[in-house]
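Quick log. Single chain, no ligands specified.
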Amino acid sequence: MGKMHVPGDRCLGLVLPGGGARGAYQVGVLKAIAEILPRRSPNPFRVISGTSAGAISSAVVASQARVFRHAVADLERVWGHFRSSHVFRADSLTMLKSSAHWTAALIFGGLGVANPKSLLDNSPLRGMLARSINFNAIQESIERGYLGAVAITAAGYGSARSVTFYQGGEAHQPWDRVRRIGRREPITLDHLMASIAVPMMFPPVLLGSEYYGDGAMRQATPLSPAVHLGADRLFIIGVRNEEPDPLPSPGEEIPYPSLGRIAGYVLDALFMDGLSQDLERLTRINQILECQPQSYIDTNNSRLRFIDAMIMLPSRDLREIAGRHVHEMPRPVRLLMNGLGALNYGGRQLVSYLLFEQGYTRELIQLGYDDTLARREEVRAFLEGVPIDAPCGIVGWRDLSEQYSQRVRTLKLSGVS
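-> predicted structure:
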C-alpha cells in the first residue's frame, strides 16, 4: 500500500473538467455529496475550479456556497430539464439559415465581415445563465468564509495561452507559467460564455482586448488552477471511463471515419486528454515526494507538495447511454448530425457531448448519484480529511491502479535527502 499522507492545513479543492452534455454526470455526483453531508452544510470545497460545462456548475456552487444543498438543487433543476433549445437555437429556420450561411461562405471564398462566427447560436444559454446565476453573490460567499476562491479557465485566441480567471482573497496571487496564467478578475457571465465556447460550434467571446474560446483548449494541466489557489486535496469529477471500440477482425472491411466520428474524436481529445495526462503527472510528482520526509520540495519560485486526490468517473460508457436517447434531439439537429455521420455507431462520441436533452441528462445525473453513493463511506472520509492509504495518495483512477500499483515502490532517487 502507499504511504499514508496527512495534509497540514486542509484545503479541499473541487475540479470540474469540461464535457458538454456529459457535465450532467458531475451534477449527480454533487447531488450525492449534498446528501452525504448534513442537511444545511455549507459548500465543503475551499477552492472550486471549472472548465467549459464544469465552469457553469462551479459558478452556481460559488454563488450559493452558504448552503451546498440549495446550490446543487438549482443545478439539478436546470440540467434535469434541459432541451437543446435551452443551449442553442435548434429550430428549422435557424438551422437552415446557418447551413446556407456556411455554404455561401465556402462557395464564395468568404463573406468578409459577414463570415459565419459559429455553427450554432448559443444565445439561449446566455439568457438562461443570466437569469439563473447571481454573480455578485460569489464575492459575498468569499467574504463570509464559505469559499476561498473560484476559478474559470478559457483559451485566448490571440495570445495562444490558457487563462484562468479567478476570484478570491488577497492571499491568492496570480501566476505565470509557460502558455498558462492565472488572472484575478470578478467572475462574470462573459467568463462562463468564453469557457464554454467550443471551437467552431459556439462563437468566441471578447474579454478585455482578446477573444476567448473553450477552456479545455490548451489546458494541459486542468488540476493546476486549484493547486495554485492552495488546494492540497482534490476531488475530481471526470466524465469519461469508456472501453476502446473493438478492433476489426482479420479480413473485415474497415469503414472510413465519418465527419461525425472525427468531430467526436476531436471533442473527446479536447475535453478529456488533459485530465488523464495531468493525473499521470501528479502521480509521478507524488511518487517523488513520497521519498521526502517532509512531503514537499522547494524550488526557485514555488513549492512542490504532495496532493491527495479522489477521482469520480462514470461506471458505464456514456456513449451507449447517448445512443438510447439520440431520438430526443430536435429534428433539425438530428438531420445535421445525420449529415455528419454522427447517428451511427461510430458517431456516438459526438452525440454524447451535444445531447442536451432531459432524458439523457437525467440518466447521467442518476448515474453520478448512484456511483457516488456506492462509494459513500470512501467519499465521506475524503471530505473529512481522512488520510489516503493508496498508491501515490490517489484513489478512483483505474489507469493508476493498473499501471502504477506494481511500480510505486521502484522509484530510486540519488543524492536526495
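The mean pLDDT is 83.
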